[in-house]
Write a structure and sequence with these properties.
It is a single chain. Helix content is 47%, strand content 5%. It has 265 residues and is mostly helical. The chain has a domain of 98 residues. The N terminus is likely disordered.
Length: 265
């Protein structure tokens, strides 16, 4: 702390600090002034207070000989009235009957033979009573809504044709069956012309049974092989048996998968 104070005193007592110096401040940069400032000011003030007291110069003065009507000088009221759609008023005026003239005298002494009591009684008897609405209330405030359109009632289950196959599905199935029969007929004719015949079901089952029996024999030979296959002939014999079983399985799968098989005689 002592060293710091000594350094400060030495700086204040420097020779360069004895002569007072004038503080030199750099000049400020000039503010930007737009060259369009006078034009903007003139445009802003142009026509600002032209009609403060006298109103629009183009508006004609009212004729002093004619009295003023209600809301005649109210420009806002006139604009609103001009913008109103009077088509509704015109329709109402056209629907109204004409006003009777002074010469049109009312008809007096006319009578009718209609029995209003009997007519009203018949109307009441023949009238179909109104069915009460099917509503439901689901809260304590009594708010109700129709239950038929809500989905809470069984609507489609009670139909007469419920559970039946739709007509379009029946039509589609009939078309598919017809197309299948036409294809079978076409294939039969094609192979008949090419001297080919269709294999019978009994013949196909007989061939499948023979292939399965042959596969069992080969599989029995495969199971009788020795556990240790240490020579080349043993390995070749095992591979040959595996190849025979794969071929037999392929033929059995082919015959069982395809129900219609054509054979060339």
């Amino acid at each position: 702390m002592v060293v710091g104070q000594n350094n400060k005193n030495q700086l204040e007592e420097s020779v360069y600090n004895l002569i007072p110096r004038n503080e030199i401040r750099p000049p400020k940069a000039s503010c930007y002034v737009s060259k369009f400032n006078p034009d903007v000011r003139e445009k802003f003030n142009e026509g600002k207070h032209e009609r403060r007291t006298m109103g629009y110069a183009e508006e004609p003065a009212p004729d002093p000989q004619q009295f003023l009507k209600k809301n005649q000088n109210n420009t806002k009221h006139n604009v609103i009235n001009d913008n109103k759609d009077t088509s509704l008023n015109k329709d109402r005026a056209q629907r109204k009957p004409p006003v009777p003239s002074i010469r049109d005298a009312p008809k007096m002494g006319t009578r009718t033979e209609k029995n209003f009591i009997q007519t009203n009684a018949l109307d009441v008897v023949m009238t179909v009573p109104k069915k009460p609405e099917r509503n439901t209330v689901d809260d304590r405030f009594g708010d109700k809504f129709p239950i038929d359109q809500s989905g809470l009632t069984q609507k489609y289950v009670l139909k007469k044709n419920f559970g039946e196959v739709p007509v379009y599905i029946k039509t589609r199935q009939a078309d598919m069956e017809k197309a299948k029969q036409e294809y079978q007929t076409y294939v039969s004719d094609y192979f008949r012309r090419g001297a080919m015949r269709e294999m019978d079901i009994e013949e196909r089952e007989k061939i499948v049974d023979g292939l399965k029996k042959q596969w069992e024999d080969v599989h029995h030979e495969y199971q009788t092989l020795s556990v240790l296959i240490d020579t080349i002939p043993k390995r070749q014999y095992k591979e040959r048996l595996e190849h025979q079983m794969k071929l037999l399985e392929k033929d059995i799968d082919l015959l069982e998968k395809h129900h219609v098989i054509y054979i060339a005689d």
